[in-house]
Amino acid sequence: MQEPARKELSGLANRFESFLFDLDGVVYRGHQPLPHAVTTLNLLREAGRQIFFLTNNSGATREQYAHKLTAMGIPTTPEQVITSGWATALYLKKALPNAKLFVVGEPGLKEELASHGFALIENPDETLPDAVVVGIDRSFDYTRLAQAQYAILEGARFIATNADPTYPAEHRLLPGAGAIVAAIATATGRKPILIGKPNPEILAPLIQAQRIHPQTTLLVGDRLDTDIALANHLHIPSALVLTGVTQRNDVECAPLELLPTWVLNHLGELLGDAVENLLIHPTA
Length: 284
Fold this sequence. Notes:
The chain is α/β, with parallel strands linked by helices and 284 residues long. It has 2 domains: 12-56 and 198-274, Rossmann fold (3-Layer(aba) Sandwich); 85-194, 3-Layer(aba) Sandwich (Rossmann fold), CATH 3.40.50. Helices cover 30% and strands 19% of the residues. The chain contains 9 helices and 15 strands. The protein has a 6-stranded parallel beta sheet, with helices on both faces.
């Protein structure tokens, strides 16, 4: 399919050819798109910019995220979506090919791993896995904690899709995968191998394929310790939006390595006067 011709944009967006957007707290909260998100993303797409979505949430597959975004009015293909679950599967294909896995996670993560050829173990007491993979799991309980503990103490590798302590839902913050990872780390005394943001491993597929170039890409997120830390590690310009976890006073107290290039109240400010008055607040 032919890409749309590049068009001029107003505001900050015109400086960049590619955009990496976090999802929870940036594009939507739960099932509700955030103000200006649909309009802004579609204007970027229509102007010929590359758009990718980069999420630490391993609860769904790339296909499921693409379907969710499309249903919100943001046409998206699975190839535009990078999840920590998908990145974990790619990591394991290199590090532990043909591994047996015990997964503390939701069906989306299990489907992603199974689609890459991994055998999934339901009960470590019957068959010891080669690795325990942990992501968001809203049905996590003591039995799963004990099973993960046993497998890791018996020698299985401890892999975490991400360590986000919370994620923004419609009306409040909820515990994230990091809360579950912390419980298993406490029970085992082991630290996990972390795959998702801020680990640069999650962006390796796009960078190695030269689908994005750091100097012409803007990473937009709502967390300093994941989104902005990843951008700074890879020398990618970044914009923090205040529609998710991080608030302005958090930026004022942040160390230099976690400071974004710009702080925006919402995604509409990427386009300045094309949507409404542009209010960018440099923090560095």
